[in-house]
Amino acid sequence: MKNIVLTLVATLLLFSCKSTKNYEQKEIRRIATNYQAIINSDINRSSKSRRDIKRGLEMLEYRVALSADSIVFTTQDGQTHVDSFYYNPHKIQYIRQHSLITPGKILMTKGKP
Predict the structure, then answer these.
(1) Which of 26, 79, 90, 109 has the maximal Cβ count within 10 Å?
(2) Strand 70-76's sheet: what is its strand order?
(3) Is the pLDDT of residue 44 over 60?
């Protein structure tokens, strides 16, 4: 009976680890596709909890979504002003959903900023 329980626990752990890795890979592919980014998915492959993986994916999406599609620097009266332009609809949606709009972020949505 003890062997059956140990075998069952080991099997569950194996499937849990595999599904966590599949989840992580699927989410990295989704982020890379939506935001048209190149992401090295082989980094930090150490064993982590699902919560840590989810936090890491949230930070990855945050960083990728806030990377501007183009940046324009203008200097006027000795001061430099930076405008970040966002054309990708997924980035624009992320910025709006998380209330990250600032004066320097210009969201370009089909002809209307």
Answers:
(1) 90
(2) 70-76, 79-86, 105-107
(3) no
